[in-house]
Amino acid sequence: QVQLVESGGGLVQAGGSLRLSCAASGTIFRINVMGWYRQAPGKERELVATMTSSGWANYADSVKGRFTISRDNAKNTVYLQMNSLKPEDTAVYLCNAAVIRTPNSGVVIGSWGHGTQVTVSS
Q1: How far is CA 87 from CA 13, 64, 82, in A?
Q2: Alpha-carbon distance 16 to 56, whole Å?
Q3: How far apart, in whole angstroms, are the C-alpha atoms of residue 11 and residue 68?
C-alpha cells in the first residue's frame, strides 16, 4: 500500500496564506500524478489541483491564481501554497497519488489519509 500524510492546515483570516504538505510512503517506484482535494461539510469531495511528475499543473477554476501546487519528486512530497484565502476555501484538504510501485507493475491509487483542516475566518 501507499500511505499519504497531510500537514500544514490551520486557522487563518481571509486574505491570509497557508502551505500544505503531503508525503507519500510505502513501496514506490515512481509517482505519476499527485493531487490535492478538499471536502467541506455537507459537500462532495472536489479536486483542487494536480501535478504530473514532469511538472504540468492543473487547477480548479475556483483556486486559479491563488493556489500553487509543487512537488519534490525525490521526497515523494507534494505541496499546496494557498494565498488570498477565502472563507469558502474552508474544508478538509486531502492528497492522493497515482503510483507505480515496481518497474513492472501498473498504476495504483494511494490510500486516503485523514487530511488536514483548513479554516478561513471572515
Answers
A1: 8, 16, 13
A2: 26
A3: 19
* Nearest-angstrom CA–CA distance, 97 and 110: 6
Q: Which residues 6+ apart lie within 8 Å of 18 measured at CB? A: 8, 9, 10, 12, 82, 85, 118
Task: Provide the CB-side half-sphere exposure for 105 (13 A, CA).
Answer: 15
End-to-end Cα spacing for the chain: 40
Place of cell 513501496: 27
- The whole-angstrom separation of Cα 99 and Cα 94 is 16
State pLDDT tens for residues 9-40.
999 999 999 999 999 999 999 999 999 999 99
Tens of pLDDT, residues 83-109: 999 999 999 999 999 999 989 988 888
- 58 grid coordinates: 492543473
Q: Distance (Å, rounded) from C-alpha 47 to C-alpha 59?
A: 8
The x, y and z cell numbers of residue 39, run together, are: 471536502
Cell numbers at residue 118, please?
483548513
Whole-angstrom Cα Rg for the chain: 14
